[in-house]
Amino acid sequence: AMTGYETNNKYEITTKNGIQFMHATEDTDPCTRQCCGALRPFDLDINDGNGRTVIRLDRPLRCTAIVCCCCCLQELNVQCPPGVHVGKIQQM
């Protein structure tokens, strides 16, 4: 039996009343999840109620060594619809 194996994360997106209207699924290979942990690169597809991807968040791999702290800040690229870059979320 294999233990400590992390799978792709899945999320429900709900209204303030708790009604799910979208869901999100991470896409990362098993080796990356195991070796890079919480700092891993990933794609996160946000899907509507019909299963269509409406937003994609892309997090590239960044150096986390102390010497890279100013030039390799964490970021998420935002695509809406997928393939159309509309902006990014960047660590300050």
UniProtKB/TrEMBL annotation:
Keywords: Calcium, Lipoprotein, Palmitate. One of its GO terms (molecular function) is phospholipid scramblase activity. Pfam families: Scramblase. GO terms for cellular component: plasma membrane. Its cofactor is Ca(2+). Belongs to the phospholipid scramblase family. May mediate accelerated ATP-independent bidirectional transbilayer migration of phospholipids upon binding calcium ions that results in a loss of phospholipid asymmetry in the plasma membrane. This is Phospholipid scramblase. It comes from Pinctada imbricata.
